[in-house]
Amino acid sequence: MNALTIKALGFAAILIIATIYVVMSMDIDLTDRVNAITMGGAIAIAVITAGVSVKYINQMKTDTATGDLMDDNWDGIGERTNELPSGWAYTFLAVFFWSMWYGLIGYPVDQYSQIGEYNEEVLEHKATYEKKYENASPEVLTSMGKSLYFVQCAPCHGNTGDGLSGKAQDLTKRMSKAQILDVIKNGSNQLKYPMGMMPPGMASGQDAEDIATYIAGGLKGEAPASYAACTSCHGADSKGNAGMSPDLTGYDNTLVSHTLQNGKKGIIGAMPSFKTMITPIQEKALAAYIQSIAQ
Amino acid sequence: MFFHWLEKNPFYFALMISVVISFAGLLEIVPNFAQAARPLSTEKPKTVLELAGKNLYVKDNCIACHSQMIRPFKSETDRYGKYSLSGEYAYDRPFLWGSKRTGPDLHRVGNYRTTDWHENHMRDPKAMVPGSIMPAYKHMFTNVADIESAYAEAVTVKNAFFTPYGPEFKRTRAAWEAHRPKVIADAKKIADDMKDEDVKKAVANGEVPEIVAMIAYLNSLK
């Protein structure tokens, strides 16, 4: 071992210690595989750099030239006729063939596109997602609905679902008296139920007041006599005749779905349609969550 | 001869290299770019009211916190809707892609927010989103939007870039006076969905408060 090797080892040791010191002082988690590999790489670079330098510096001291000097020279600098080192030559050939393959076949046929990758990602996700949540339990649906709600609905309906003091529908209750009076007076035709539109003026005056109070109060107690005009469409139990018209007692799956598909505009404001943004499973999940906060 | 000369003049040598390389670049980039930068067939230029709103978006520097560019990642398209296409920006001068998302992307905000929501939110973001750090833009409810400049802008881009505004967009005061009622009618549609009485009154008097133009622009982002 000559002095140069010892110096190089010392230098490598300093580099390694410096690397470890920096890694430690940065509080890097070495149980994370990627971090451990990165640090291993840094140490390997230090050792290889020192080792290779020593090898070649030593070689330069002792090596003598072999092979015949070529006749040509450039400003007095000559060249010897040695064979190509075989390792270099084989690597060159391998890279040559690989680049031919990559340029002609590998790349153009299998061309990368960002949109293509996106489409694949979406398809793949859809397939696993649909399967995974096809028969999701109510708890899973509710928690999925909750996270969706906080992204898409909370800015309007509020974190608690209360509608931010009258800025959107209060989802913890069904409709308010004022909203019902408005629908009775003006009718409504935006939710696209099989029954079509709700005609305006189905009741008026005191009858309308009584009906609105009754529905807004949660349909408790004796129904006012005039309410019979409504049950023909909304069902004897006011639950909407199995999806033919809106449920007046709560937010059933059909109502949430029709609202999300078509949006609606009422006296409070406008609710946008989420037709392109929410999948059927997500609709069910949102309905499950809304039903859970209404209780 | 030429090559000997070129090899001895590094500056011209570098120049020739860049010419050669740029030529290849032009062949690859320009045809694709020319196609992708065409407006989508569904794309319409902004109305004068929306343009006035767009100018407010620039003036009040919404771009410092908001981007208008939905990237093709599932996490983004789930939240904002379809990823953006370059043809959608063809009439945007300047386009407002932005590069900072302190707040959410707005490129399709018209799909999932409404006039009444914007009204509440622009007046006091915290009332809608607890803890929001977006500034309140109360001044927009009293300042008057510059719809005349917006009209001039529409006429200019029509003449300079052939943006397809109709034949009624002409460089005369009479043309503007004839178009003005349309702008006010657009503004009235927005104001009808708003709650603020002063704004409604101003629009009824033929004035357009900034907030109306701003909301018209936000609603047009689809």
Short synopsis of the structure:
Chain A has 11 helices and 6 strands. Chain A is mainly alpha-helical.
Could you please describe the fold and organization of this structure?
The complex is a heterodimer of chains A (295) and B (222). Chain A is mainly alpha-helical and 295 residues long. Chain A has 2 domains: 1-58; 135-293, no CATH class. Chain A contains 11 helices and 6 strands. Chain A has a two-stranded antiparallel sheet. In chain A, strands 3-4 form a two-stranded antiparallel sheet. In chain A, helix 1 runs antiparallel to helix 2, helix 5 packs across helix 11 and helix 7 crosses helix 8 (205-216). The longest helix of chain A has 30 residues, at 33-62. Chain A is elongated. The N and C termini of chain A lie far apart (83 Å). In chain A, 20% of the residues are buried. Chain B is built from 11 helices and no strands. Chain B has helices at 2-7, 10-36, 48-59, 74-80, 109-112, 115-123, 125-128, 147-161, 173-192, 197-204, 210-220. Chain B has 2 domains: 2-37; 48-220, Cytochrome Bc1 Complex, Chain D, domain 2 (Orthogonal Bundle). Chain B has 222 residues and is mainly alpha-helical. Chain B is globular, with a radius of gyration of 22 Å. In chain B, helix 3 (48-59) packs across helix 8 (147-161), helix 3 (48-59) packs across helix 11 and helix 9 (173-192) packs across helix 11 (210-220). The interface between A and B is medium-sized, with 23 and 22 residues. Chain B: It is an enzyme of class 1 (oxidoreductase). Chain B: The chain crosses the membrane at residues 12-34. Chain B: One of its GO terms (molecular function) is electron transfer activity. Chain B: This is Cytochrome c oxidase subunit CcoO (EC). Chain B: Residues 48-222 form the Cytochrome c domain. Chain A: InterPro entries: CcoP_N, CcoP_N_sf, Cyt_c-like_dom, Cyt_c-like_dom_sf, Cytochrome_c_Oxidase_Subunit.
